[in-house]
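Handout, page 2. Input:
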Amino acid sequence: MAAGVLLFLTLVLLGPVSLAAEDMGTLPAPGYSEYEIKSAMLYNFTKFIDWPTSALGVGAAPLVVGVLGDDPFGSWLDTALRNKAVSGHPVVVRRIESPTGMKACHVLFVGASDRQQVAGVLRALGHAPVLTIGNGEQFAKLGGIIGFIWDGHRIRVKINLQAAQQADLGISSQLLRLTAIRPEAPPRPRE
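Output:
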């Protein structure tokens, strides 16, 4: 039964991308690239995050997804997020040229692969309510909130719950159940 719930939640999270769940990860469907899948996952993560009211703004203010550093998504992220909205906020994608624009984002994919660069970006963000996402298990260990782990066959997700709490972001228990780790601290109530 738990495997059925996991598969259902994975499909709900990933929307139109057809994937199967295995070992708390996902296998790419034939014809989909790693970054097409990560684009869909990134969008669907936003549905399971609670930002402080002051961070999202009022009315139909956009939810900004930024890409800082190397952009491995190409046009896939723009395509996946075109005409999407989260809780009434239209989603817009921006390429961030310098760290000064990071805090204007709600979601920030950090394309840096160098450990020192990643640590510097995360330090510069401080406790800003920004959902940080990057590649590799080290990303979450360095203080990023969500790390994509690609092993050549599947994408797993590692969530740093302490970093999310420091950024005042609530993570739904539904999303936490899909991760390959057990949170060290209890999740902030969402519902």
